[in-house]
Amino acid sequence: MARKKNTVEETGQMDPVAFIKAVKGIVAEKEISEDVVFEAMELALATAYKKNFGSKTNVRVDINRTTGEIKVMSYYIVVDEIDEGDTIIDEEGNEIDVPPEINLDAQILIEEARELDPTIEVGERIEKEVTPKDFGRVAAGTAKQVIMQKIREAEKNSIVDEFADKQDEMLVGTLAMEDARNYYVELGRTRGILPKSETIPGEELKMGSNIRVYVTKVEANTKGPLILLSRKHYGFVKRLFESEIPELADGTIILHAVAREAGVRSKIAVESTDERIDAIGACIGERGSRIGSILKELNGEKVDIVLYNADPAEYIKNALSPAKDAIVNITDPMKKEALAIVNDENLSLAIGKKGANIKLASKLTRYKIEVKTLNQVNEEGNN
After folding, report:
1. Within this chain, do residues 14 and 150 fall inside the same structural domain, yes or no?
2. Cα radius of gyration rounded to whole Å, the chain
3. Do 139 and 261 sit in the same domain of this protein?
4. Are residues 219 and 101 in the same domain?
5. What CA–CA distances, in Å, run from 303 to 8, 163, 184, 241, 306?
6. 61-118: per-residue pLDDT in tens?
7. What is the pTM of this model?
8. Cβ neighbours of residue 162 under 8 Å, at least 6 residues apart?
9. Residue 3, domain member (yes or no)
10. Cα 362 from Cα 317, distance rounded (Å)
């Protein structure tokens, strides 16, 4: 018994039902819009028609979304005489304004046009069906590559749209592979790029393990969606605290600012909106349970949690932690400059190793901070 022929290549014809079924299969598999797939098919088939049938006319392809019937429609400018020049002139000698999408070669005589539409006039546009009998086989074969390209583009845009609102957010992915410069993190439908320069200094990452990452950039490029990730960004610390501290999520505690030198120290400024809630205590948690999980994620990076204060002098004093008892004078409010006076025992703490503490305090408060001891101030005053 002969096998039933049911494909385009075998029968020379496109089975409309099978065609619709195939399109819907692509939509389901690629999770993209049905309209996007149909429009891609129509564009591809229009290109295939022009290539395979040597058409110089302007065509569009209509695909019936229900029956799968394909129609090739060619549109022409109606003339009373075929003009082979660069312009089209009507019977009164006036130049006809041709729409930009109309090829000047696409002309049809008024007599022929009125067989399609008795009311048509010279200078107007008319469409005519020009679907070839064997168009299903020829067009489908030629259009396949173009269709797949459009589907890839649609899929890429779909992924970019999916991740667009995840920029500046923290995600959990799986380390999939690495090369000399980057780690690649599985994020569901795509992979993000975690440059090795954006990891926490000293941490060791294992392939196949789950990893928290901060999304710094989402965009489309020629190779597909580009999703850049970081664990070094100060925003990573902010999102870690928000994920571990419920009071930050419900607004009981406000996180005003974060300053970070990855792998060394971070400072965060918090404020409680409820006088019954201790902002710093809530961030630390019972027996350090909350801050402990954050420090583990940060590979032992030190974190200073300081109280935000609307008074810049008090805010700077808090930001200089672990230094204590600083006396802060705002020396230039316009330039945002301040002088912090500490005792000898707290000078090294205020400045920090390689100046890290004062640098982070300045970033946190957005003030240029100078630190001196009381003795230094007195000596300068006597000079």
Report:
1. yes
2. 35
3. no
4. no
5. 66, 30, 28, 11, 10
6. 888 888 888 888 888 878 877 665 555 555 555 665 555 445 555 777 888 888 888 9
7. 0.68
8. 189
9. no
10. 11
